[in-house]
Amino acid sequence: MIKTLAENPVARGNWVTSARVQMFATLSLIGTIGAVAYLFLTAHGTVDSFGRPLGTDFSNVWTAGRMALERRAPLAWDWPTHFAAQQLAHHKANIPFYGWHYPPPFLLIAALLALVPYIPALIVWQASTLALALLTVRKILPSPGTTLAALGAPVVLVCLGHGHNGFLTAALLGGGLLLLDRRPFVAGLLLGCIVYKPQFGLVLPVVLLLGGHWRAICGALLSAGLLCALTLALWGWPVWAAFIHSLPLTQSVIIEQGATGWEKIQSAFSAARNWGAGISLAWGIQTVVTVAAIIGTMAVSRGTRPFVRNAMVIAAALLSTPYLLDYDLVPLGMAIAFLVVDGRERGFLPYEKTMLAFVWIVPLFGRALMSLTTVPLGFLSIAAIFLIALRRSRSIT
């Protein structure tokens, strides 16, 4: 006999209790601490026991920063030269190469981190940005269990393992959207800083313009402009020329050919390529998803409750880019927090609690499962947040 929605625990989500969330978060956090401790305790200098740099992708950040300090900033986008710098930094010829694909504003952070040795820089970088992300999510959802649920989220281990900027991106997106209606200029300053990761900024002008957030627009233009101007003042036009010159190679090797592995990239484009689609078809599929993300953002830009809008914007920002790695899923934690607040205030719709729990845990096994089955759970988790937010914007007033 088919259970009604009222009787179906998956639909009701009554199995997602505070006690279970805390239990799973505690177990996950213990695993995260253990994994990070193992990597550091078994490392030889800056190289872990698997022969990779500690923090893997942080290798390109620190070495790019060193090159900037050595007045070789434009060469950070030259792959052979940058690889030689990474080999020198880790005293290992066969170290894996991690390419530098960022626009010049991120080189400002890289140069600051490169002022100190590699391992202290990695620790400072991850600890400080994780703290910013925790502060932001606690402002969104000021509940007793928020800190544990956030620290224990499996995506934290993913980001720590890569030594990456997912925490910073999450803090900027989450903080900017949280402040958008109360302190719009400050919100704009935060959102403008995402110029260092421009692939996530496609939908932001849409929500700001259609929502009439003019002060936020001014703040975003100011912070983005100042960051770009500072790079020009420090290193001149050559760094921008080098970045622009590197884009076709990044598009071809990293995005279109999937040099990092399709399972690592969490976009619609990557999913299509992993299923055997040609480059043109994959771009067509990504275009459809991007347009849908923009339309969804337009639909919630005015007259939608702020927290539902914010979750939608975060999901749309991630859906709209073909270049989205597994550590870039950290902002979904902010989206979950926004939706939990709205759900507690107005009630959860069927299946929402279960889907939010699914999104929280997917980074634990999503990449491995995609490698084994080609099922893009990371992409599906973003789409789930998008659809939950869209549904709430239409079903609950």
UniProtKB/TrEMBL annotation:
<feature type="transmembrane region" description="Helical">
    <location>
        <begin position="217"/>
        <end position="237"/>
    </location>
</feature>
<feature type="transmembrane region" description="Helical">
    <location>
        <begin position="106"/>
        <end position="135"/>
    </location>
</feature>
<keyword id="KW-0812">Transmembrane</keyword>
<keyword id="KW-0808">Transferase</keyword>
<keyword id="KW-1133">Transmembrane helix</keyword>
<dbReference type="InterPro" id="IPR018584">
    <property type="entry name" value="GT87"/>
</dbReference>
<keyword id="KW-0472">Membrane</keyword>
<feature type="transmembrane region" description="Helical">
    <location>
        <begin position="357"/>
        <end position="390"/>
    </location>
</feature>
<dbReference type="GO" id="GO:0016758">
    <property type="term" value="F:hexosyltransferase activity"/>
</dbReference>
<dbReference type="GO" id="GO:0005886">
    <property type="term" value="C:plasma membrane"/>
</dbReference>
<feature type="transmembrane region" description="Helical">
    <location>
        <begin position="185"/>
        <end position="210"/>
    </location>
</feature>
<feature type="transmembrane region" description="Helical">
    <location>
        <begin position="307"/>
        <end position="325"/>
    </location>
</feature>
<feature type="transmembrane region" description="Helical">
    <location>
        <begin position="281"/>
        <end position="300"/>
    </location>
</feature>
<dbReference type="Pfam" id="PF09594">
    <property type="entry name" value="GT87"/>
</dbReference>
<protein>
    <submittedName>
        <fullName>DUF2029 domain-containing protein</fullName>
    </submittedName>
</protein>
<feature type="transmembrane region" description="Helical">
    <location>
        <begin position="147"/>
        <end position="173"/>
    </location>
</feature>
<keyword id="KW-1003">Cell membrane</keyword>
<feature type="transmembrane region" description="Helical">
    <location>
        <begin position="21"/>
        <end position="41"/>
    </location>
</feature>
<comment type="similarity">
    <text>Belongs to the glycosyltransferase 87 family.</text>
</comment>
